[in-house]
Amino acid sequence: MAQDSEAQVRWLTTAVVAVTGALWGLTPLAFLLDGDPRRALVALVLLGGLLVVYARIVARHIAGTSQGPHRARTFLLFAVVVYGAIPFQGSVWIYTPLIVATAGLLLLPFRYGVIVLLVVAAAEYPLTLVEWGPLASSAAQRSAGVLVAAVVAAGIVHYARFVRELRELRVALAEMAVDQDRLRLAGQLHDLLGQTLASITLKTELALALVDVDRKQAAAELEGTIAIAGEARAEIGDVVEAKRSLDLGAELTAAAALIELTGATCDLRLGFKEIDKETGDVLGWTVREAATNIVRHSDARHCLIELDEVDGRVQLLVRNDGARGERDHQPGSGLAGLRRRVEKVGGSLEAGATGEGVFQMRVCLPAVHDRESGHR
Fold first, then answer.
1. What stretches pass through the bilayer (predicted)?
2. Distance between CA atoms of 316 and 269, rounded to whole angstroms?
3. From the CB of residue 365, how many other CB atoms can be counted at a distance below 10 Å?
4. What is the pLDDT of residues 177-223, one digit of tens each?
5. Other C-beta atoms within 10 Å of 225: how many?
């Protein structure tokens, strides 16, 4: 989860800083269009340095971490560089105070950030009159423009943070959904075995106490213990059988919903209408295991679940584009158990990376289950 969060922060930060850098780059470009390469170079150096600092601010904000003890000094750095360069850079530089307002919204406590925003917007009015001449309407428009642009810029950073938090929440909910079924089964087995083992313990202790007093009664108690154990075995079998008997259609729908809960898309392609029950059970388990692995062990953005007939056999293909690397795809007990289940009914399972970031699982099974081979 921590690695996923760090990757999301890096990706979102890169996107936000790239957009911001493109907008800030309009100022040096404006100087070039005015035929002033010297001021264009100065603007490029000043804004490039501020963009490096701004990138760190954005990364911390998206990650939800503190801006550090020197955030006030960082804000003053933006203010000094931007306003200090106005006398030398002239009228084209007059739009850059929006950077100061944005930095105030991201670095300072909310109430102080709003105050800075209003002060910067108000100061833009006289600065425009000085640089562009006594045209009140134009000055008012530029003042309002700085206000709106700063709010939008800070809003983009906040939105990126909300996107990261929402994705993490989706993954957490998906993992909870995966664990819920296993916890329910564990609870059923706990209740069943707890009562059964207590009964077996009592009857066994009673048999031990009677063995030297009444061997016939002790034997009867032992027979009762064996009967209880047999009933418990049958009941456990019923619980497990209920767990094993999966509805393939329901599993396909649940898998797609679970994968999409993480924010990925899932493409279902079904070319089969009727499948043998036992074959369908195996395929249901395969779909469930594959969906679980995608949620827990990948950063998939798109998944494909395809069920079709190939050369008279049922073929299930599950592919995703979010493999994290070979170390994250070490065979586990789930995949090993699934392989045994597939081979038991005369099928085959292949799973592994097929390209950069692509992982797929392919299962081939007979369309009609062979009971003799399945119970050998």
1. 12-33, 40-63, 75-96, 103-123, 143-160
2. 10
3. 24
4. 667 766 766 766 776 677 677 777 877 887 888 877 887 887 887 88
5. 18
The pTM of this model reads 0.56
CA neighbor of 295 nearest in space, from 263, 339, 343: 263
β-strand partners of 304: 267, 319
Please provide the distance, in angstroms rounded to a whole number, between the alpha carbons at the two ends of the chain. 43
CB 265 within 8 A of CB 303: yes
Q: How far apart are CA 359 and CA 336, in angstroms?
A: 17
329 vs 350: CA distance, rounded Å:
13
Q: Which CATH number characterizes residue 266's domain?
A: 3.30.565.10
Number of domains forming the structure of the chain = 3
Look at residues 103, 139, 107 and name the one whose alpha carbon lies nearest to residue 124: 139
Q: Does residue 32 sit in the same domain as residue 156?
A: yes
Return the amino acid letter for 58: V
Would you list the DSSP string of 63-101?
A: HT----TTHHHHHHHHHHHHHHHHHHH-GGGGGTHHHHH
How far apart, in whole angstroms, are the C-alpha atoms of residue 14 and residue 62? 11
**C-alpha closest to that of 34 among 97, 92, 82:** 92
Q: Are 116 and 108 in contact (CB under 8 A)?
A: yes
Q: Are 90 and 131 in contact (CB under 8 A)?
A: yes
Q: How confident is the model at residue 240 (pLDDT cuts 50, 70, 90)?
A: low
Q: Give the 3-state secondary structure of residue 254.
A: helix
Question: Which SS3 state, helix, strand or coil, does residue 311 take?
Answer: coil
Whose tokens are 């739009």? That residue is 95
pLDDT of 96-149, one tens digit each? 898 999 999 999 988 999 999 999 999 888 888 876 666 667 778 888 888 998
